[in-house]
Design a protein that fits this description.
It contains 5 helices and 28 strands. The chain has 418 residues and is mainly β. The protein is globular, with a radius of gyration of 28 Å.
Length: 418
C-alpha cells in the first residue's frame, strides 16, 4: 500500500505516465479500496435499518347490550412488546413484557373478552373520570351552585359515578406515531352527565415504544367550569397476572407525605409525614419497602367493612403545575427482576393493594384474582380536592373554559438483577 501511495504521489511528475503506468492499475486500486472498506460500510448500512413497526391491528371484542360492537386494538413493537386496549372504557386489557427467565409475561389483570368487563369489575385497566377517586357525599359547590353526584361508594362518589368513562364506548383512532403504534380514544361527556356541569371533550392516547415504554396521555376541555381528575387504573403484577399475590413486590415512591383518611376513605385534610408509617416507600430507605409488610401494618376492621391494606394517596415530591414529567414510583418483582418505573406530571399517586379482590373474579387464562393479586399506582390529583380549594399543599381540580386538563404518564419496563 505504501508503494502504491508513493506512486500516486508522483503522478504529477513529467513523464510519469511513461515510467510507472500499467493498464491494470485502476482496477487494482478499486479492488483494494473495496477490500479495505467493505468491513466498515456494512455495519453503517445495518445500523441505519430500523425494525418495521405497524399501525395497530383491530379485532372484534364483543357486543354491548344495545348491540354496539366493541373492538380490541393490538399494539406491537420489535422485541416482543405487546399491549392491547379496547374502545370500551379505553381499557388496557393486557401488557406483555418480554423480560425475565419466564418471559414474555402479561403483567396486568383483566379479562379475555368483553363479557368480563360488562359483568362488573373493579376498574381493571380502565380510564376513569370525570372525577376519579372519591368526592365526599357526592356533593360539591362550584361558582356558587351546589351539585349532587351519584353516591356509588357507600355515602361517597367514586371514579365518575354509576356510569363513568370506564363504561363508555369510545371512538377509536389507531395510528402510527414517531414513537410507535398508538390509539387515541375520543369521548364527549354531555353537560349534566352523572351530575357534573359542563360538556367535557376528552381524548386518551396509548403509545407503545420499542424501548419498552407504555405512554398514556389524557386531555380534556370543558365549555363550563367543572371538576376533572382522570386516572389510569391498571392492576399490576410484575410476576405475571396469573401468578398470585403481590405481597412480595418491592415498591418505592417519591413521596414524603400522604393523606390520612377516615372510615369512608375520605382524606381528613392533613398532609402527614410518611416517616415511621406503613406509607414510607421512600427510595432512600435502607431496605426497600415490601408491599406485604405495608399490608400487614394496616389490618382490616373486625366487622369486615374495611379489608385493610394500602388505599391512600401519596403526595409526590417537588410537584409544580405543568407538563414536566417527574419520577413517581418503581415497582419490582424480586424473583424475576421485572421492574415498572412510572413518571407523571401529576401531584399524587393512589397506591391500592387490591384489598377488595376476593377470588370471585376469574380473569385471563383462568386466573382467579384473590386478595392482593395486583397493585394499582394511580397518578392523579388528590382525592376530594374540590373540598380543599385554596388550602396549602392541595392542587386544584377545577377545569375552566379555555383551559386544557393534561395528564401524562410513562410506564417503563425493565429487568433488574438481584
Amino acid at each position: 500500500m505504501r508503494r502504491l501511495c508513493m506512486s500516486m504521489q508522483t503522478s504529477h511528475r513529467p513523464g510519469w505516465h511513461r515510467s510507472v503506468w500499467h493498464p491494470g492499475l485502476p482496477a487494482m486500486i478499486v479492488a483494494l479500496v473495496a477490500v479495505l472498506y467493505s468491513g466498515y460500510n456494512a455495519p453503517v448500512h445495518a445500523a441505519e435499518e430500523k425494525p418495521a413497526m405497524h399501525t395497530p391491528t383491530v379485532k372484534p371484542f364483543g357486543k354491548l347490550a344495545d348491540g354496539r360492537e366493541a373492538h380490541l386494538y393490538v399494539l406491537e413493537t420489535p422485541g416482543g412488546w405487546r399491549a392491547t386496549v379496547t374502545d370500551y372504557g379505553a381499557i388496557l386489557t393486557s401488557m406483555t413484557v418480554p423480560l425475565g427467565k419466564d418471559g414474555p409475561v402479561d403483567v396486568v389483570l383483566g379479562f379475555d373478552s368483553l363479557e368480563g368487563y360488562l359483568a362488573g369489575h373493579p376498574y381493571f385497566g380502565a380510564s376513569c373520570g370525570r372525577c376519579s377517586n372519591r368526592i365526599a357525599n357526592g356533593r360539591f359547590s362550584l361558582a356558587g351552585k351546589e351539585y349532587q353526584l351519584a353516591t356509588n361508594n357507600g355515602d361517597h362518589h367514586l371514579h365518575g359515578g354509576d356510569e363513568g368513562f370506564d363504561k363508555k364506548l369510545w371512538k377509536a383512532e389507531p395510528k402510527m406515531t414517531d414513537r410507535g403504534p398508538a390509539v387515541t380514544f375520543h369521548l364527549v361527556s354531555p353537560d349534566g352527565e352523572e351530575g357534573y356541569p359542563g360538556e367535557l371533550t376528552i381524548k386518551v392516547t396509548y403509545i407503545l415504544t420499542p424501548a419498552g415504554e407504555l405512554v398514556i396521555d389524557m386531555q380534556a376541555q370543558s365549555d363550563a367550569a367543572t371538576v376533572c381528575n382522570m386516572v389510569h387504573h391498571s392492576y399490576w403484577n410484575m410476576a405475571g397476572q396469573a401468578s398470585g399475590t403481590i405481597r412480595g413486590h418491592e415498591l418505592t415512591v417519591n413521596a414524603d407525605r400522604y393523606l390520612p383518611v377516615d372510615a369512608g376513605s375520605i382524606p381528613t385534610g392533613e398532609l402527614a409525614a410518611v416517616a415511621e408509617t406503613a406509607f414510607d416507600f421512600r427510595p432512600e430507605r435502607a431496605a426497600t419497602a415490601r408491599l406485604g409488610d405495608a399490608i400487614d401494618a394496616l389490618p382490616g376492621s373486625a366487622d369486615g367493612t374495611n379489608p385493610g391494606g394500602v388505599d391512600h394517596n401519596l403526595c409526590l415530591r417537588g410537584w409544580e403545575p405543568g407538563d414536566a414529567l417527574r419520577p413517581v414510583a418503581v415497582l419490582r418483582d424480586p424473583a424475576s427482576g421485572r421492574t415498572l418505573s412510572i413518571e407523571s406530571n401529576q401531584p399524587g399517586v393512589q397506591v391500592y393493594t387490591g384489598n377488595y379482590l376476593d377470588g370471585s373474579l376469574t380473569g385471563k387464562e383462568g386466573a382467579v384474582y384473590e386478595k392482593h393479586s395486583g397493585v394499582c399506582l394511580e397518578t392523579q390529583s388528590f382525592p376530594d380536592a374540590i373540598h380543599h380549594v385554596g388550602e396549602a399543599g392541595w392542587p386544584a381540580v377545577i377545569l375552566e373554559p379555555g383551559q386544557t386538563y393534561h395528564h401524562r404518564m410513562v410506564h417503563r419496563f425493565s429487568q433488574l438483577a438481584d
